[in-house]
Design brief:
Helix content is about 85%, strand content about 0%. By secondary structure, the protein is an all-alpha fold. It is globular, with a radius of gyration of 22 Å.
Length: about 425
């Protein structure tokens, strides 16, 4: 009976913790969002010819690359500072105002890239249209960071779920009244603007005051000081996206539109798999910060070890599932045009074996103020990825080279993190070797 009582008490404690409460909302929301977004993606893949679909994918990749840097990587910095800030409204207003300015600046950069990288007018228009979302995204991401810091991700999840459902409905209209993909892009811009207004009115955790935001002045010297002192976050936030999105551009230049579509399909499936570790990490990171600030090294390390085990098991399960069933699921969902995609998806999912724990260890390094080291590892991984990819595709014109280069970069990234974790006595040599 004592064992049963202890088990009940343990389970009750787990389900009542902030980690599970926030992560549960996140997982449910992300699952519903992913279902709607995946269905939307499937509709586009089926309703538009592969060359047009590939142009949309390339435009979306450019937009996401710009977005990765447009926030200047300050989301994690804001979360860390907000937890200990005395004047939270002032810090929040400052952060939101800066993100708005950054969004406008990087939209201008997006327009420049459209003309620099591509001569095709249709692709340029798509890049500019999708890139306009950068302005809205910056403000939305700032409010999302605020909700993470306040453990109120529930508001974020509800609003984003509504948005993805409406996006799916917009895709369904194609079956009733077909229209070109440029018109669809304009509809998506309007939808993102509505989402922004929802975040400002009901999703800002009652901390954002619009009047205060408008009146708050940002001096160039303040922005420069913040960027200079936290430039490592900019690199970390950007490089993690580039590792994936750079491949779209490389493939569009060195392979075929069909390869562009195949890569994106594999990446969309990978995105589904990474929902759990990414969502859980939004709750794990502030908890790591809190435990570290409490100055209890043993609790801090025990929490990390427990999460490391969960992340590792999830990666192993995800890879095994895809390896076993992708040959059946991919053609069923995307049609016979993409029969060969299962093979490429299996290759991409090698990365899921290390991705969750890379994410956890990156949060650990940032927590203990070693974000500059994490930044260097990100850059090193990007160089490895890009080098293997370009050199490999020069000799072997196959999408496999892209998938293997991504896996190699993440594996080396993980090993580099292990070295620093061991050096700081956060893990042991035996644990690191056992994982590999």
């Amino acid at each position: 009976m004592k064992i049963i009582d202890r088990s009940k008490k343990y389970v009750s404690g787990v389900f009542n913790s902030n980690l599970v409460k926030n992560s549960s909302w996140g997982i449910l929301s992300q699952l519903s969002q992913t279902v709607f977004l995946s269905l939307f993606f499937v509709i586009l893949a089926r309703k538009y010819p592969t060359p047009i679909f590939a142009k949309y994918i390339v435009a979306n990749a450019i937009y996401q690359l710009v977005t990765a840097f447009s926030t200047m990587g300050l989301g994690q910095w804001f979360i860390r500072e907000f937890i200990s800030a005395e004047n939270k409204p002032e810090l929040t207003s400052k952060f939101l105002k800066m993100q708005t300015y950054f969004g406008v600046s990087f939209f201008a950069l997006n327009i420049g890239l459209a003309y620099l990288l591509y001569d095709d007018q249709y692709t340029r228009i798509l890049i500019i249209l999708l890139g306009s979302n950068v302005i809205f995204d910056n403000i939305i991401n700032a409010i999302k960071s605020l909700n993470v810091a306040m453990f109120e991700q529930k508001k974020t999840f509800i609003i984003l779920t509504i948005e993805t459902f409406i996006k799916f409905l917009a895709g369904c209209v194609l079956y009733i009244y077909p229209f070109d993909i440029i018109t669809l892009s304009i509809i998506l811009i309007a939808l993102r603007f509505i989402t922004l207004n929802l975040f400002l009115t009901v999703g800002s955790s009652n901390v954002v005051n619009i009047k205060m935001l408008l009146k708050y002045k940002i001096l160039y010297a303040d922005v420069k000081k913040l960027i200079v002192s936290n430039w490592a976050f900019i690199i970390i936030g950007g490089v993690s996206i580039i590792n994936w999105r750079l491949a779209n551009i490389v493939i569009s230049k060195m392979l075929t539109p069909f390869d562009v579509a195949n890569y994106e399909i594999s990446f969309k499936i990978f995105n589904i798999a990474q929902i759990l570790p990414v969502v859980v990490s939004t709750s794990v990171f502030p908890m790591l910060v809190k435990l570290y600030n409490d100055n209890d090294p043993e609790k801090f390390k025990m929490f990390y070890k427990k999460m490391h085990l969960y992340y590792m098991l999830f990666g192993l399960f995800s890879y095994t599932f895809i390896y076993s069933f992708s040959g059946l699921l991919v053609p069923l969902v995307f049609g016979n045009s993409y029969l060969s995609n299962a093979h490429y998806t299996q290759q991409m999912f090698l990365t899921i074996l290390v991705f969750p724990t890379v994410l956890l260890q990156a949060n650990m390094l940032i927590t203990i103020n070693l974000e500059k080291l994490d930044m260097l590892f990100n850059i090193f991984a990007l160089i490895i990825n890009f080098t293997i990819c370009i050199v490999g595709l020069t000799y072997v014109k196959s999408l496999s080279m892209v998938n293997y280069s991504i896996f190699a970069s993440f594996l080396i990234f993980h090993i580099s993190q292990d070295v620093i974790m061991i050096k700081n006595k956060l893990t042991s040599v035996m644990s690191a070797v056992s994982f590999i």
